[in-house]
Design brief:
Chain B has 189 residues and is α+β, with helices and mostly antiparallel strands. Chain B is built from 3 helices and 10 strands; from the N terminus they run H-H-E-E-E-H-E-E-E-E-E-E-E. Chain C has a single domain, classed as Cytochrome c-like domain (Cytochrome Bc1 Complex, Chain D, domain 2). Classes of the chains: A mainly alpha (424), B alpha+beta (189), C mainly alpha (265). Chains in contact: A-B, A-C, B-C.
């Protein structure tokens, strides 16, 4: 898509097609001849992993939908009896899909933290980053809708709790929030109507994601890849064609990723799940500990850390929205953390903070840390974590970019590659 | 990657071919669960065989039961109908095979091979042409010219042993696997 | 990465010290058992499955349903290994609520539900016709369906084993066992509505296994584990084949990767 096309149709037929629909040219220029920095490391292979996981989720999802019944009386049975026991390989497809969601999020978090570390969100890749944030938000919504479908206890109560977040709007405009939740549910509680619309949306959203992924790749191929050095490519000596260099490299790491994924599917298929979801939804009984799926735990911790309902919802939303402003909050002229000693430390603190928040979210609301005899309620840890999360984006990052003394950048990618090996 | 100056396959070529082959084979195996999931599930396969009481069926009458999602014709034939079916030589039939799940595939389509007891004709009521349900012929409302069944979709005409005699259907109506569990009780499937 | 290690150590130390003091109503952690179906090559012990089926049939099934398991599953691959004839005989021994008869009735003259013998396609019948009847017969408590019980409880087989063998201990001093309930230290709140289900000799195993409470419990937990995860053996076997292939493929891809990138790094 960028620069000159190197594609030369080899036969009469391809020449004919090329004048009418240059699709082979598009594929060739985007995924075969596409010039790519020669120094991309392991962490850059997760874009390919994510494309693969989207494909897996769509294919297994379409197949599961052939057997699933979106009806509150039958949904649980259609999953746990029909799919898991009766359909040929139904258990495999279901475990692939359920664990696939978790692996998808593992990959997306690595992909996002990699972008953060190497400054891939900075000019001229702001739109690329923002599209990525939108994909992430769409993924969260899709995963939420999907988790409701098996109609277990966690499905039901997760749906109830998350949709009830909207009732916080009541504190701004009386009755508006309640009207929104009633509209979302299609009733006065999560019920058959809710399940049906969530199924419809869960089927639709992956295709929306696929569309935005198309834009994301387009926005990647205009400026071209960033790289671990964060410097611009100077010429052909800095680059290799995407195929075979990155097809084989991405392929190798993809297979390693699939091995981890399938190890969960075959030997710990319920590792990411919650036993309560093997109990059919019961609107009369709430499980003692409702926990969202692990990939939402940091946001859940932020929500719970704020004692005021509307403010809690705003903080949680703000945590996601902050990501959109990242390209302009980072004031540094240097992209990669390799040459930014302060930002590098801040990055690891931020990563630790996200894990810490996730841990807080996984514990009960009244959990307490006992450190050398001093009782420390976990909610205070979550509050500090939330504070640091926002401070990272809105205070520390803009500030550090201005005061930081960066290390000298190498002349070019080629020079750096030839002078030393490839490290983090 | 073997070029003009070195047409011999190299170790590198072998590696590329082996890797490509492994990817292809792996992908081919991975496709199977996605295909097989559309085959009948264990619950469908385990669907009960049905048991039918024939006592109430009058001579010349046909009763339809449901078996594996298809209509099952049970017809109590009159001696005249049996005689009509037995009078036809196998060589005059469109389909010379019995199509009887209780017999060998090669059994000829004689009337004896179409029944267990001559009085009772048990058939899967699905036209062998394109799957419509043929209409039974009775003296009150005759169908077709052979006294058996006529399929109204495309005019396949069956005789009193359910054998195709005229029209586009290629085969005789199928005889399902069944057995008499009592003089007037049969178990199908 | 090196600066992460101390952070991680602090984090781990904090996590370990987290948690609340044990109180008298906090459940004990489940007993740690070894199961034949644990691990990468785990399979169900056929003998235990068949004995467990017997325990379910003769003991548990008077209160607990097993809705998702069909009789043909008993003869299916990876299951208790009954032959199809045995499974048919087992099915025929159960009375299944009958379909309406020719007169459209589902009860006989005395108002009893009409039944028919079970066939392979039927599922295990429920002990009570509805939830209300189940509660009315069990002091207000609802005996849960056992189809997924092993997967629906934290601790899985260890938890269920601990519960059914956890009766008979004296409650700690000052602990009140509510009326109509039983003391079971492995149950949340330690007051359980289920009476002790297993006794020595509750069943008599035809294969000569002594009918101790522990043997009965092991057998029925194995059976219920299979009921929760009937495809486990296929999963373990296919998983091994798939992962072995992928490791091989990863090796080939690594060699190809090195060849392709030779001189470019």
């Amino acid at each position: 898509m960028a620069g000159h096309s190197s594609y030369v149709p080899g036969t009469g037929l391809t020449r004919w097609l090329d004048q009418r629909l240059p699709i082979i040219r598009l594929v060739n220029d985007s995924f075969v001849a596409f010039p790519t920095p020669r120094n991309l490391n392991f962490w850059y292979t997760f874009g390919g992993v994510l494309a693969f996981m989207l494909g897996i989720q769509i294919v297994t999802g379409i197949v599961l939908a052939m057997h699933y019944v979106p009806n509150s009386e039958l949904a649980f049975l259609s999953v746990e009896q029909r799919i898991m026991r009766e359909v040929n390989y139904g258990w495999l497809l279901r475990y692939l899909h359920a664990n696939g969601a978790s692996m998808f999020f593992i990959a997306v978090y690595i992909h996002m933290f990699r972008g953060l570390y190497y400054g891939s969100y900075k000019a001229p890749r702001e739109v690329l980053w923002i599209l990525g944030v939108f994909i992430y938000l769409l993924m969260v919504m899709t995963a939420f809708f999907g988790y409701v479908l098996p109609w277990g206890q966690m499905s039901f109560w997760g749906a109830t709790v998350i949709t009830s977040l909207f009732s916080a709007v009541d504190q701004l405009v009386p009755h508006l929030g309640t009207s929104i939740t009633t509209w979302l549910w299609g009733g006065f509680a999560v019920d058959d109507a809710t399940l049906n619309r969530f199924f419809s949306l869960h089927y639709l959203m992956p295709f929306v994601i696929a569309g935005v992924v198309g834009l994301h790749i387009w926005a990647l191929h205009v400026p071209g890849n960033n790289n671990p050095l964060g410097i611009d490519v100077k010429g052909p000596q800095d680059m290799v064609p995407f195929h075979p260099y990155y097809t084989v490299k991405d392929g190798f790491f993809l297979v390693l990723f699939i091995i981890v994924y399938l190890a969960f599917v075959f030997y710990a298929p319920n590792f990411f799940g919650n036993p309560d979801n093997y109990i059919q939804a019961n609107p009369m009984v709430t499980p003692t500990d409702i926990v969202p799926e692990w990939y939402l735990l940091p946001f859940y911790a932020m929500l719970r850390s704020v004692p005021q309902k509307l403010l809690g919802v705003l903080v949680m939303g703000g945590a996601l929205v902050s990501l959109l402003f990242l390209p302009w909050l980072d004031t540094s002229k240097v992209r990669s953390c390799r040459f930014r000693p302060l930002m590098k430390q801040l990055f690891w603190l931020f990563a630790f903070d996200c894990v810490l928040l996730g841990y807080c979210g996984s514990q009960t609301a009244d959990a307490v840390w006992n450190i050398a005899g001093v009782e420390l309620p976990l909610v205070w840890i979550a509050r500090l974590g939330t504070l640091f999360y926002f401070a990272f984006f809105w205070v520390l990052m803009p500030w550090i970019g201005k005061i930081e003394v960066t290390r000298p950048l190498p002349e070019s990618i080629a020079q750096s590659v030839l002078s030393k090996g490839d490290g983090l | 990657m073997a070029n003009a100056t070195n047409p011999e396959p190299t170790r590198r070529d072998f590696l590329y071919i082996a890797t490509g082959a492994a990817v292809t084979v792996g992908a081919a195996f991975a496709v199977w669960p996605f295909i097989d999931q559309m085959n009948p599930s264990s619950a469908v396969l385990a669907m009960a065989s049905i048991e039918v009481d024939l006592t109430a069926i009058q001579p010349g009458q046909q009763v339809i039961f449901k078996w594996r999602g298809h209509p099952l014709f049970v017809r109590r034939r009159t001696p005249k109908e049996i005689a009509a079916a037995r009078a036809v030589p196998v060589s005059a039939l469109v389909d010379g095979l019995a199509r009887n799940a209780n017999l060998k595939d090669a059994a000829p389509a004689s009337d004896e091979n179409r029944v267990i007891k001559p009085e009772w004709l048990v058939l899967v009521g699905v036209c062998t042409h394109l799957g419509c349900i043929p209409t039974v012929s009775t003296p009150q409302s005759p169908q077709g010219s052979f006294g058996g069944w006529l399929c109204h979709c495309h005019g396949s005409d069956y005789d009193t042993a359910g054998r195709i005699r005229k029209g586009p259907a290629p085969q005789n109506l199928a005889v399902p696997p069944y057995a008499f569990t009592a003089p007037t009780k049969i178990k199908i499937g | 990465m090196r600066r992460l290690l101390p952070l991680a150590a602090v984090f781990a130390a904090l996590c370990c010290s987290a948690g609340m003091a044990q109180t008298a109503s906090e459940p004990l952690p489940p007993k740690e058992m070894n199961w034949s179906f644990d691990g990468v090559f785990g399979t169900y012990d056929r003998g235990a499955l068949q004995r467990g089926f017997q325990v379910y049939k003769e003991v548990c099934s008077s209160c607990h349903s097993l809705n998702m398991v069909a009789f043909h599953d008993l003869a299916g691959p990876g299951g208790p290994g009954f032959t199809e004839l045995q499974a048919k005989a087992i099915a025929a021994g159960y009375k299944i609520p009958a379909e309406p008869n020719d007169r459209g009735e589902i009860t006989d003259d005395r108002g009893n539900r009409l039944t028919r013998p079970g066939v392979l396609a039927d599922h295990f019948p429920q002990p009570f016709p509805n939830e209300q009847a189940a509660r009315a017969n069990n002091g207000g408590a609802l005996p849960p369906d056992l189809s997924l019980i092993i997967k629906a409880r934290n601790g899985g087989p260890n938890y269920v084993y601990s519960i059914i063998t956890g009766f008979g201990r004296a409650p700690p001093h000052g602990f009140t066992v509510m009326s109509g309930k039983y003391y079971n230290p492995y149950f949340a709140g330690r007051n359980i509505s289920m009476p002790p289900p297993l006794n020595k000799g509750s069943v008599s195993f035809s294969d000569g296994t002594p009918a101790t409470v522990s043997n009965e419990a092991k057998a029925v937990v194995t059976f219920l584990s299979w009921a929760s995860e009937p495809q486990l053996e296929a999963r373990h076997r296919i998983g091994f084949e798939v992962l072995a292939f992928l490791v091989l493929l990863a090796g080939l891809l690594f060699l190809t990767y090195r060849k392709v990138w030779h001189g470019k790094h």
